[in-house]
Amino acid sequence: MSFWKENKKHVYWNPYFGGFMLGLLLIATFYITGRGLGATGATKSAVITTVKTIDHDYAQHSAYYSKFHLDEGRNPMNNWLVFETIGMIAGAFLSGALSGRVKFRIQHPPHIASNKRLIYASIGGLLFGFGSQFARGCTSGAALSGSAVLSLGGFITMAAIFGTAYIVAYFFRKIWIN
Amino acid sequence: MGPLTYFGEISTEWNYVIAIFIGMAFGYIMEASGFSSSRKLIGVFYGYDFAVIRVFITATLVAIIGLLYMGYFGWIDYSVLFVHPTFIFSATIGGVIMGFGFIIGGFCPGTSLCALAIGKIDGWVFTVALFVGIFIYSLVFPFIEPYYNMGDMGHITISEYLNISNAWFTFWFALISVAIFYVTSVIRKKVKEVRY
Amino acid sequence: MSKRYILLAIVLIGSAFGLVVLPNKHDTNQIPAEEFLIDIYNPARFLSTHQVAKRLIERDPSIFLVDVRTPSEFEEYSIPGAFNIPLENLLEEEWADYLSQDGVDVVLFSNGDIYADQAWTLIAQQGTKNLYIMKGGVNQWFSTIIQPVEPPETAPSEAFDLYAFEKAASIYFGGSSANVESATTTPTKKTVVVRKKKKKAAEGGC
What we know:
The complex is a heterotrimer of chains A (178), B (196) and C (206). Chain A is an all-alpha fold and 178 residues long. Chain A folds into two domains: 1-103, no CATH class; 108-178, no CATH class. Helix content of chain A is 66%, strand content 0%. In chain A, helix 3 (40-54) packs across helix 5 and helix 7 crosses helix 8 (152-169). Chain B is mainly α. Chain B has two domains: 1-80 and 180-196, no CATH class; 84-156, no CATH class. Chain B is built from eight helices and two strands. Chain B is globular and about 50 Å long. Chain C has 206 residues and is of the alpha/beta class. Chain C has eight helices and five strands; from the N terminus they run H-H-E-H-E-H-E-H-E-H-E-H-H. A five-stranded parallel sheet of chain C has the order 1-5-4-2-3. Classes of the chains: A mainly alpha (178), B mainly alpha (196), C alpha/beta (206). Chains in contact: A-B, A-C, B-C. The interface between B and C is medium-sized, with 29 and 21 residues.
């Protein structure tokens, strides 16, 4: 039994069960709101809010920020996706806490130093932030929610993300495996 | 008949409350499936853990099939669901950039938030970098705007594009998915196990 | 590979295949034939020229007149306030919001009854409610509202009441029986404000 306890933090759901639950959640989300889930939308809102607070004039006249009609006095944080993201963090914490996985740490492969891992994580985050805006959505917003209603763009984005990662995986293998 | 907010059956205030609960379920499912671990996520590309692709494809299939059935029985108005618009160029190039981000960073935005929630510093760093990435995008947006709007195909679905019915597409997609599940389970047995 | 995974795969493919073999659903946009037949035989789909005139005089906002004749006929003469959607363009997407409005009675008319009736059939099949035909069309409009005929003296008093109304309406619509010329002036164009139905759900996320 002690073996079980020790390994409990690695006991995740069966992926097919997880997928089934996620599928049901997608259906519920579409049933209630008519659109899917998202993850970068809230990040975008936060960036917009920050830029607006620092330099309101710039935000109003920049080609990118003016798309969000800041002059109409709308608060970009009053957005469905922002609330969803707050819930997401809470839900993930709940699951982690129930399984004893909450702990401050840097997860990295044994042969990679933790500061190197953080550098890689930041490069990846930069690329993902940029790419998600260019593609109008990330893995959850475009690929998952798009595919759920058979959107062509959703399938293309999904194929592009996973395809690219598979193709270049060989060149980045040193980051992850020996 | 759904979608409920579309037909005005739920007020905006409740909508936000529901958003929090849906988000909680989303975060819980992702974390419980192990998506807060970059090493587990990345396993899909090196063959030692296929959880990502299994969860992802199963979820997509369940949602597609469920929504089509609900549309058929008239529980939801399928025609008003938000279909992610297709811009061939930006969807492909954006996807390629995200593919690089995935393999280097080990997360995608949703999973990095899960990692952040359970105290993983790499998740925090990824999320902060995500903000910076979006900010950089906003700075260069005027220069890339023509490319952003290139190849606009509107709110088109893949079955419309392939000129087959939704049902047949779903059927073939299900067959291919089962094949993928089988092949990945074979690969998984051949690849050296990675402990993480 | 265990048996339960095989079972799950079969369930998955089976439910996907179920979508394929489901019988083709009746297009929900079209109402069933039996119901439609009843609607066709329902005389309530006709409004008399008097009813239309009365509501126009009262400036009833819940009436929307649609002239299904050709634009040239419309230019020549039409009922004041009417909106021209030629029969051949009736099913174009841009008119959908005009022809199906919540809480507004859409009244179709042509020169006689035939084209208006065809228009009615086309639109009503989409399940549109509050759809009417002005009985007799522009011809009837002329002979009752613009140039009313005095009933013979032996007619019942109701006929005289009606004639009184017709005379008044005739003056209102600028075509008193004495002055036919002014009746054929160009109709006043009404700027139409149609509340557009929401077409797409809110912008998607991520």
